[in-house]
């Protein structure tokens, strides 16, 4: 994972791209950098919420980003408690206002620890979040994918999807290969990412669905009462 950066801020991204590959940037410490929507298809960024990392992103660093989708990351530390780390990760997500059903990406690097992963998953599941591990292609599949899929490091320098079932993302270039201050990944989907700016129509549809459900429940009560 890349450690530092420093580039000029960029404007808000365009609507979600449906043609170019979906890309994500990840960097340990962005400083005051705003990650721009370049190369084409860059829709998401990963940020660190705690764990075995030299830097935990601040709320201000997250808020200044203009990419719409965000992916929380918790780096694994050998010997740590998966239960305690999962609980701490869930607490960090809640403190940042990250909604339920977003996946925490557990950065295993080259580690394999199924017991820790299962404990971590149980803790974040209990809080309403999902789980999926990140790691080298040579080791990551030794860890359970947790329902949200694996994020695989396979540094070919070119966007691609790693050929394996349940792969959510493929980190295809480190910063040096990308020629940028951050690593780049291709995503198979934006499922379980944090959508920081859901479309107005989505919010309206959800509100309408709740209203319809309430009316249906009232109607059912009336029907039962008059049966």
Describe what you observe in this structure.
With 227 residues, the protein is α/β, with parallel strands linked by helices. The protein folds into 2 domains: 22-196, TIM Barrel (Alpha-Beta Barrel), CATH 3.20.20.80; 198-227. Helix content is 28%, strand content 22%. The protein has 5 helices and 9 strands. The protein has helices spanning 59-63, 82-96, 114-126, 175-178, 200-225, and strands spanning 22-26, 42-48, 69-75, 103-107, 130-136, 150-153, 167-173, 183-187, 194-195. Strands 1-2-3-4-5-6-7-8 form an 8-stranded mixed barrel. Strand 3, helix 2 (82-96) and strand 4 (103-107) form a beta-alpha-beta unit. Helix 2 (82-96) runs parallel beside helix 3 (114-126). The relative contact order is 0.14. Residues 2-18 have low confidence and may be disordered.
Strand-helix topology:
Elements (H helix, E strand, L loop, with lengths): L21 E5 L15 E7 L10 H5 L5 E7 L6 H15 L6 E5 L6 H13 L3 E7 L13 E4 L13 E7 L1 H4 L4 E5 L6 E2 L4 H26 L2
Parallel strand pairs: 1-2, 2-3, 3-4, 4-5, 5-6, 6-7
Antiparallel strand pairs: 1-8, 3-9, 7-8
Helix pairs in contact: 2-3
Summary, kept brief:
The protein contains 5 helices and 9 strands; from the N terminus they run ββαβαβαβββαββα. The protein is of the alpha/beta class. The protein folds into 2 domains: 175 residues, Glycosidases (TIM Barrel, Alpha-Beta Barrel); 30 residues.
């Amino acid at each position: 994972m890349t450690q530092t950066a420093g580039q000029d801020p960029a404007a808000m991204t365009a609507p979600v791209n449906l043609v170019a590959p979906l890309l994500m940037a990840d960097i340990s410490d962005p400083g005051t950098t705003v990650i721009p929507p370049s190369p084409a298809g860059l829709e998401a960024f990963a940020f660190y919420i705690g764990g075995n990392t030299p830097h935990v992103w601040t709320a201000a660093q997250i808020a200044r980003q203009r990419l719409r989708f965000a992916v929380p990351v918790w780096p694994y530390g050998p010997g740590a408690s998966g239960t305690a780390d999962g609980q701490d990760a869930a607490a960090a997500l809640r403190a940042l206002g990250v909604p339920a059903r977003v996946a925490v990406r557990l950065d295993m690097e080259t580690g394999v620890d199924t017991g820790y992963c299962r404990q971590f998953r149980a803790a974040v599941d209990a809080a309403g979040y999902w789980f999926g591990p990140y790691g080298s292609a040579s080791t990551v599949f030794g860890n359970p994918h947790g329902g949200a899929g694996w994020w695989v490091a396979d540094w070919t320098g070119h966007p691609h999807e790693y050929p394996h079932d349940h792969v959510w993302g493929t980190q295809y270039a480190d910063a040096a290969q990308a020629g940028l201050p951050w690593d780049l990944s291709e995503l198979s989907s934006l499922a379980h990412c944090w959508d920081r700016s859901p479309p107005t129509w989505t919010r309206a549809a959800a509100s309408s669905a709740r209203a319809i459900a309430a009316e249906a429940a009232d109607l059912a009560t009336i029907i039962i009462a008059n049966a």
